[in-house]
Specification:
With 283 residues, the chain is an alpha+beta fold. It is 32% helix and 31% strand. It contains six helices and ten strands, in the order αββαββββαβαβαβαβ. A hairpin with an 8-residue loop joins β3 and β4. α4 crosses α5.
Amino acid sequence: MKNLSLKFIILLLMTCVTNLLYAQEMDAEGCKDHPFFNRLDNYYIDGCKENYNTYEFMVGNDKTQTLEGTLVDILYSYDGPFGPNLPSKLQVIRNYENAVAKMGGKKVYSRTTDDGGWTGATFHLQKDGTEYWLGIYDLINNPVDQFTLVLLTIEGMTQEIATNEMFEKINSGLPLALYVNFETGKSTIKSESEHIVAELYQMMNENPTLYILVEGHTDNVGNKASNQSLSEQRATSLKAALVNKGIAPDKIKTVGLGQDQPLADNSTDDGRARNRRIEIKKI
């Protein structure tokens, strides 16, 4: 009996491996699974793309949130036996929900009602200091014979700079570029950039005769007028953070310069990241 059970397990494993290899052979050229997520049985990749872009994620009933980052888009199609093996919309979503939960993430929103409306799910997780948004969308039919996986990676530029280095550069008359991470499209300073605010506060606190100008800069993604407004709001947000720590408001002036003074080429991801910055100048 034990030998029969072992043979059955080996046969089952061989069948799973064979199905996976067969599915991978059918994958569109140059496409592969994202390393975070294993594909569902009997699905192959019908198409894929990867670029730096914005994406509109569903985060509630008729509510969306547009985010920016490196976007991976994978279209999965089913090529197995139709019948009880074909998963339902809820099963597909639960599979990814469990995978995200194991990595410490959570579901933001899902809808599985089969009434002809939108169905899918949005998840959010942070891993090794990087933020990820996952969408399981376009679930075709129920059971599901096709769906789209969308994964957006948001990597903020990190920066370590000592207080004395800040002061020496500013006091010499040179501008100091700071890569403060804000929430996408907003002026809220993210927690991972609080250390930059703390260093800037310490520098000003230790040099009471110093007055500074805070300049906000953006890349050229989106509308020029909205970028101008966003740059102003972000400069004001940094000033508010310093004032809240105890710096006198009259020691800080702010200005927004939008997308008009890029440091690098806006046609590349790295260039746009360098252009999204705060500059500090002595006045």
